[in-house]
Amino acid sequence: MSNKKNGKLFVISGPSGSGKGTLREKALADVKNLVYSISCTTRQPREGETDGVQYRFISREKFKEDIEKNLFLEYAHVHSDFYGTLKADVIKELNAGKNVLLEIDVQGALQVREKISEAVLIFIAPPSIKELERRLRDRHTETEENLKLRLSNASKELALKDKYDFIIVNDDLETASRELRNLIENEH
Ligand code: 5GP
């Protein structure tokens, strides 16, 4: 897939609880000409989430249809649900000269790299697994079973961090946020 010399694609990944969601929001607020691609997911909305804002919440049937229609740039099965990025959304923004930010899991990021080799892959790492567990527990958004699943997935994701172009350790939010912003601005 070619995207001529238009916008640039940035992909951030990191375990659940690494703070990548907060870093993403800060980057979108701080960096000019950077837009977010809203993913599709089959998971249920959490309290406060709205369809079309955090995600497009769709059924498994619709997700499977969209896979068959080849609509996804990438998709993956994460924590027992499907998540995917619509190809048309990303291409439209890149062609309009926008830089696009995806916040997706490791499997998805590696699929993006296969298709768009110029994509910049950034891994957000927690200072440690212990700290990650503490943050996830403080969030009170997951059941114990889901939390365990997220922690076990975190170890698997961390093992793949060297496949990324850049690693940012999110120990202090302000520092990590500045690093991410500088990185995106310098890679434009
Ligand atoms: P959450 O359910 O906590 O919002 O997200 C769970 C995981 O799914 C996170 O690691 C997030 O980065 C990942 N994710 C969100 N959207 C996508 C997507 O479009 N594709 C892939 N591969 N992963 C996604």
Show the helix and strand layout.
Elements: E1 9-13, H1 20-30, E2 34-36, E3 40-41, E4 56-57, H2 60-68, E5 72-78, E6 81-86, H3 87-95, E7 99-103, H4 106-115, E8 120-125, H5 129-139, H6 144-158, E9 166-169, H7 173-187
Parallel strand pairs: 1-7, 1-8, 2-7, 3-4, 8-9
Antiparallel strand pairs: 3-6, 5-6
Helix pairs in contact: 1-7, 5-6
Bound molecules: guanosine-5'-monophosphate.
Guanosine-5'-monophosphate is lined by residues 16, 39, 43, 74, 76, 78-79, 83-85, 103-105, 107-108.
Give a quick rundown of the structure.
The protein is α/β, with parallel strands linked by helices. Helices cover 43% and strands 21% of the residues. Guanosine-5'-monophosphate binds at residues 16, 39, 43, 74, 76, 78-79, 83-85, 103-105, 107-108.
Description of the structure:
It is a single chain. The chain has helices at 20-30, 60-68, 87-95, 106-115, 129-139, 144-158, 173-187; strands at residues 9-13, 34-36, 40-41, 56-57, 72-78, 81-86, 99-103, 120-125, 166-169. The protein is of the alpha/beta class and 188 residues long. The strands form 2 sheets. A 5-stranded parallel beta sheet has the order 2-7-1-8-9, sandwiched between helices. A 4-stranded mixed beta sheet has the order 4-3-6-5. A hairpin with a 2-residue loop joins strand 5 and strand 6 (81-86). The model has no long low-confidence stretch (mean pLDDT 93). The site of guanosine-5'-monophosphate has 15 residues, from strand 5, strand 6 and helix 4.
